């Protein structure tokens, strides 16, 4: 093994005088399941390792000994749900906070946040590029890349990206270009509504009646369905000129769900980790065990067709179950890193706890097992979930960020085996930590290539509709006027967020309890159903995935008018001769409600929850369409106005009232108050700023009303402090009581020099 340089003395003194730290206290944990991007990095001198600690809201810092073994030195508190980071210099790191909608700028010598930069909603990744250098940060729901000046910390430009959830970034080696990959990029499919689609095929079960009218999934460029007028460019990766901030190139048909990118050090080609959905294939029995392709897209020229490198090319998907395949499968690739020569790439297999070793020609040459379960064995409760990679400058140690176990594994690349693992501070409740593995574990499928998260990506959705009907199935009675047919037609993938308190699930209310999803492990994934104990653990986890705050202001007059219509106006909804208010069906705080009425798909359905509608917009930049599926159970409505205009389900609503209802629905609040995640950093230069103090007023007022808890972290007179605000006495109390409780004015007075800086953060106040 190659020798290592010794860490600098100053940093060793700092970090070993610090302590592993948790920013969370009882009552503050919420599981948002935010998607990590570039969540691990090694200092250029090989002395320090940095890892994003998402559940602890911190950046974990490790010292590396002469053999590259990491030792946890400290945790630096940042915003809520950090997902990515980049080193600006060897003494400054920028961390992306997904729920806080912010960047935490960290002085690595002081070990604290020295500045907080508010950015667009749901930031996903960050890189530095350009001359002069600037920070580029994605905003997923705003569909922009925001350019930030490194000195003023001001946003100087916004690059609008015509794609659905731009997330991961890569800067070219020369810094002249920045590439952005679209997370839910789609695959150029859309739905033909049941009102105009051909009749479904005859059931193979002779005891079944004919199937109800239902839509079909087609390619948007299918000449047989040009009358749909759904135009999708299927542009998945965009190249931005880092000087002009203009989009200079676009790559099409890269994949359906895109993860991290890497540039080959020799050819300069782009490699993009992705999965490709097979939602054009109709019916669950046909899809069984083969729902997606797990692949690497090779991009050379925007004018040339994308080359796909299948990570499981030798698999026979007709063999189910296939333990041999499970022992080899690479599923849901999330990151790629090359060795210095470019001869080999290393690819994470998030679903099967492996690292695939891939030659420069795209052939998988070997696999490195991460964690305790090797081959076809699996223990979902202790699943690692390798999400991101970093390589030591010497090139012989690979560091693996394990998102699910919140640990870092380190791999000796000569022997291609894990030589150690270190855990990070993690206050995730045990039942959530153990239960999440069942969502992401592809070894639970018949061939190791698919997990629940292949469609419910990161506990959310893939933006697609699937036809998971079964022509050989059985009728199901959910209490509606007529039994439900097993041939149900295309239905949108629903998010797993915000399910706490619900009893009946799926668009057609055909899942009475989360336990009834157990059959999907066998019927759809081709594996075995979970045991009673495992299923119970999985259900607890699924009931504990939360939405982040809705960023849209719900206090405006248009939204309030929409709320009034929603709650009071009769005749909005209809079923036969009966007329309803919106709230009569959507009666719960989530917006979910009654079942059994005839929905827009012409079948009995459930009033689905109304949270997260703002994240499903089909168009961007006016009339540019970026998604083939929109609103309604089958995604056939391009926007909420079209949804509310459906004469089958809704009465006559004026255009003015439709606009008000649309504004209300898009701003529909989630279970997480809007104040959660808000943060600000105070130092001697800005502590008297009126605007900053007004923002602090809002934070403290929200804490007093019970909408959040307030933590404070930083330095006072050069000493690291951690405080919590107590609304009862309106004082700030230190964790451990190291200094007396402080009033607000006393705390501001203590910020009186260059060695004092404090960051205030609004945390969830969970019951």
Overview of this structure, please?
It is a single chain. With 767 residues, the protein is of the alpha+beta class. It contains 13 helices and 43 strands. It has a five-stranded antiparallel beta sheet, with helices on one face. α8 (557-568) packs across α11. The longest helix has 15 residues, at 690-704.
Question: Biggest sheet, open or closed, and with what strands and sense?
Answer: 5 strands, antiparallel
Helix content: 10-25%
Basic shape: globular
Mean pLDDT over the residues? 94
Number of strands: 43
State the distance separating the first and last CA atoms: 51 Å
Q: Can you give keywords for this protein?
A:
alpha+beta; four-stranded antiparallel β-sheet; 13 helices; disordered N terminus
In short:
The protein is an alpha+beta fold and 767 residues long.
Topology:
Blueprint: H1 9-17, E1 40-42, E2 48-53, E3 58-64, E4 70-77, E5 82-89, E6 92-97, E7 102-107, E8 112-118, E9 123-129, E10 134-139, E11 144-149, E12 155-160, E13 166-171, E14 177-182, E15 189-192, E16 216-219, E17 235-241, E18 247-252, E19 257-263, E20 270-277, H2 284-287, E21 292-299, E22 307-310, H3 323-326, E23 333-338, E24 344-349, E25 354-359, E26 364-369, E27 386-391, E28 397-402, E29 407-412, E30 417-423, H4 430-435, H5 437-440, E31 465-466, E32 491-492, H6 519-523, H7 532-542, H8 557-568, E33 573-575, E34 578-580, H9 582-585, E35 595-598, E36 604-606, E37 619-620, E38 624-625, H10 640-644, H11 655-666, E39 679-683, H12 690-704, E40 709-716, E41 719-726, E42 731-734, H13 744-750, E43 757-763
